[in-house]
Amino acid sequence: MTPAALRAEGLRKSYGAQEVVCGVSLRVRPGECFGLLGPNGAGKTTTLKLCLGLVEPDAGEIELLGEPVPARAREARRNVGVVPQFDNLDPDFTVAENLLVYGRYFGLRSEEILRRVPGLLEFAGLAGRADARIGALSGGMKRRLTLARALVNDPSLVFMDEPTTGLDPQARHLIWERLRQLTQQGKTLILTTHFMEEAERLCDRLAIMDHGRIVTEGSPRELIAQHIEPHVVEVHGPAVAEWTARAKRLCPRVERAGDTVYCYADQVEGILKDLSAEKGLVYLHRAASLEDVFLKLTGRDLRD
């Protein structure tokens, strides 16, 4: 069996009386994009910090790129890149200087880093911006520079904590394209995200985490097939409250969130026929998605 890029067994971490990671086990294969999904407070970021050796576990075992963590976390991190949730670029430095200073943390010589800068900036869509100040960059440019910075040491594994949060669709799609290029180069990616479309597009496999535990794991297609009916009909409008009772007779599983009713079924012809006669309702028929799986397993309640 090929050694895992990351192996974690039975991880536990508590802060005071609250256990935030409760027996998490993960195995990430070399060269795959692995997603860790979950609501706010599910324990995702703490799990990543444990795997990087930034936080010491109360129990469990971690092996990162063949090195035991936290005992040899520093050695393992020499071949790891990290894209944090929030950009922490140095505003006093130029674009190129940010890459140069970061590369020095890995013991790289300045000449070697400077040779890599043009390729990294080209990759990030920032060619010609080497001398620009950080304050002159847009939010999307800063995020792409943070990704380029994470690659300055040519890592074999990259951790990304919500890499496209706050970006417009154009910037998000560009980063998705770049992340696909990294996996095509054989790099291993581990990402957390709140964008289910992002996870569905990018991840070979993913785990959904809630209340500190892994609740399911598999490829996006496997999880959709395993956990959710194939058809979804979303219904809203002034008459939706009266229609809901009838929907429950037509559909095996009906959920209501706010003013929208969600009907999940293997066959929806009867539901669509009934709705076609309703003038006070608006509806959308679509295929089930990873977001439906996520909401079914973690609930629709708001998490802060």
Tell me the major beta sheet.
6 strands, mixed
Q: What is the average per-residue confidence, as pLDDT, rounded to a whole number?
A: 93
How many extended strands?
A: 14
- H-E string: EEEHEEHEHHHEHEHEEHEHEEHEH
Taking the alpha carbons of the first and last residues, their distance comes to 41 Å
Query: Helix coverage percent of residues?
Result: 25-40%
* Structural Rg: 22 Å
Q: What strand order characterises the main sheet?
A: 6-7-8-3-9-10
Outline, from the CA principal axes?
globular
Low-confidence stretches: none
The amount of beta strand, in percent, is 25-35%
- So how many helices? 11
Oligomer: single chain
Structural class by secondary-structure content? alpha/beta
Which short descriptors sum up this protein?
single chain, globular, 14 strands, six-stranded mixed beta sheet, alpha/beta
Protein architecture, described:
The chain is α/β, with parallel strands linked by helices. The protein has a domain of 59 residues. 36% of the residues lie in helices and 28% in strands. It has 11 helices and 14 strands. A 6-stranded mixed beta sheet has the order 6-7-8-3-9-10, with helices on both faces. A 4-stranded antiparallel beta sheet has the order 2-1-4-5. Strand 4 and strand 5 form a beta hairpin. The chain is globular and about 70 Å long. The protein starts with 5 loop residues before the first strand and ends in a 6-residue tail after the last helix. The relative contact order is 0.14.
